[in-house]
Amino acid sequence: MFRDQKVVVVMPAYNAARTLEKTHEEVFAQGIVDLTIVVDDASHDETTAIANTLPNTRVLTHPQNRGYGANQKTCYRLALEEEADIIIMVHPDYQYTPQLIPAMVSLIGCGLYSAVLGSRVLGGYALKGGMPLWRYVANRFLTFFCNVMLGAKLSEFHTGYRAFSRELLERIPLEANSDDFVFDNQMLTQILWFGYTIAEVSCPTRYLGESSSINFGRSVKYGLGCLSTATIFRLAKMRLVTSRLFPRLA
């Protein structure tokens, strides 16, 4: 609990057996999390079996692989069912440190922000943490493009470490988003569409052998999806197109 607000960590998992228990242990070491939710997207390893042994954890397994975006949709739906007030997404591959959870929770729990990102770019942690140079360059280009098109000033749009208020998750039309990796970008774009300010905290990251990472081909697809989403956002703002992602605001 944080100021009588229920804190839930969601973990969209896929083949995370080697790092899930370690991540879970560090999440609860922060002394502020009430519940974790693990959604296993039809892993080929022992992810579900390990998740079922973890205390204070709700586990759901997709019978078929539905994609990273679909996994998040399930995570957030379950978190709302559990009456969470503050929801943090932590990847179970141990790429992002759970030690930032108290800072992110406090920014939301004190009513300052409805969305907080753990940025790998603030503080220069991306390359220091082992992010491949080609991925860093793509990150910088896509972030610049999105900032220009969306009128934002974020240091990066592509971190998977995020915290949200319940009110925000109930308002954003998440089901309209892709079931693939571009879900991440679409969600942030929707948050900006609805007029929320997104906070960022500097986040060290670790690119370890067991950390998950999409391949080059899927990265290209993701990048094109980001460019498309930002362009549709701008055209919708100009009332030149309509989109399920960005419903008209009163």
Structure commentary:
- The protein is an alpha/beta fold and 250 residues long.
- The protein has one domain (7-237): Spore Coat Polysaccharide Biosynthesis Protein SpsA, Chain A, CATH 3.90.550.10.
- It is 40% helix and 14% strand.
- It has nine helices and seven strands; from the N terminus they run βαβαβαβαβααβααβα.
- It has helices at 20-29, 47-51, 68-81, 101-109, 125-128, 133-150, 166-171, 183-193, 216-237, and strands at residues 7-13, 35-40, 57-61, 86-89, 115-119, 162-165, 198-202.
- A seven-stranded mixed β-sheet has the order 3-2-1-4-6-5-7, sandwiched between helices.
- Helix 2 (47-51) links the parallel strand 2 (35-40) and strand 3.
- Helix 6 runs parallel beside helix 9 (216-237) and helix 8 packs parallel to helix 9 (216-237).
- The longest helix has 22 residues, at 216-237.
- The chain is globular, with a radius of gyration of 17 Å.
List the main descriptive attributes of the protein structure presented here.
single chain; 250 residues; alpha/beta; Spore Coat Polysaccharide Biosynthesis Protein SpsA, Chain A; seven-stranded mixed β-sheet; 9 helices; 7 strands; globular
Number of helices: 9
Radius of gyration: 17 Å
Full CATH superfamily name: Spore Coat Polysaccharide Biosynthesis Protein SpsA, Chain A
Order of helices and strands: EHEHEHEHEHHEHHEH
Class in CATH? Answer: Alpha Beta
Q: Tally the structural domains.
A: 1
Q: What global shape is seen?
A: globular
Task: State the end-to-end distance.
Answer: 35 Å
